[in-house]
């Protein structure tokens, strides 16, 4: 048994939980803030049998991997028009910081 | 020293914290949601001397063990009366998912 | 790689996060309540290379160490005047409970 602690961006959190449940992994979510990733993030605790660790990491990678996304900035409501970019820009989204921890004992009561 | 991470149902969380304090264990609670247990849950971090791990697990088991409870469903306020069950039903409550982690160093500043 | 889990008082949490970022450590914060420390607390997860563990512990100690602080109690708004202490009193603030955990694998996606 291993305990995977994964810090992911909020925007990927729902998708990841659904994917974990679909693949029969059991996870709990902790509200977390800042730090590893700049924007709002969620910390997952995932208890995994040794032989399924790679599979769990793959689910996290697929759903949370850092990628570029085109976003169209909203026009400014007033002022600061000089810094307004009227075309889509690429921003970095997603990303996951993942720790695999050894577990000495696991119990389910 | 071990770190026990225990995910328990919200309804058992207050009782468990009181029992841990009474037995002189030191714990902190993290707000957590969904996953290991279907309903709202709380994640406990409990720092424990090696020789008291079994005792701590017993406190968790006693206060959080999965059990059946009789509940009397409330009559429906309107509509869906066809699915109303007018007698108490047994539901599964409680339960704890517990990881015992090795600790390389412990400090109290 | 180690995972440092540090439970600190809320009042030191902002200062600690700033100090960690300044020293190029990466941390995430979890909202936590009660237990190890009597007042509101915050749990930090800090991923650290083996050779920087002592340095990270020193940042935590410097910013969170338990210390005495003089506070001037506010006069009571009404009633209980008999228990009002009209001079500054020393109270214990700060403190940190810190676990250093072994990490079997670390990934950044
Ligand atoms: Ni944030
Ligand atoms: Ni929930
Ligand atoms: Ni508190």
Automatic annotation (TrEMBL), chains A, B, C:
Coiled-coil annotation reads: none
Matching PANTHER family, A to Z?
CYCLIC DI-AMP RECEPTOR A
Gene3D superfamilies the UniProt entry points to: 3.30.70.120
Q: Which organism is it from?
A: Brockia lithotrophica
Range of residues in the leader sequence: none
Please give the name of this protein. Uncharacterized protein YaaQ
């Amino acid at each position: 048994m291993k305990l995977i602690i994964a810090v992911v961006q909020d925007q990927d959190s729902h998708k990841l939980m659904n994917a974990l449940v679909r693949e029969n992994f059991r996870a709990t979510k902790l509200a977390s803030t800042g730090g590893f990733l700049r924007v709002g993030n969620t910390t997952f605790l995932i208890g995994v049998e040794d032989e399924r660790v790679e599979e769990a990491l793959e689910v996290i990678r697929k759903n949370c991997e850092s990628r570029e996304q085109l976003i169209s900035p909203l026009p400014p409501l007033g002022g600061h028009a000089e810094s307004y970019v009227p075309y889509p820009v690429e921003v970095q989204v997603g990303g996951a910081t993942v720790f695999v921890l050894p577990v000495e004992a696991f119990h389910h009561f």
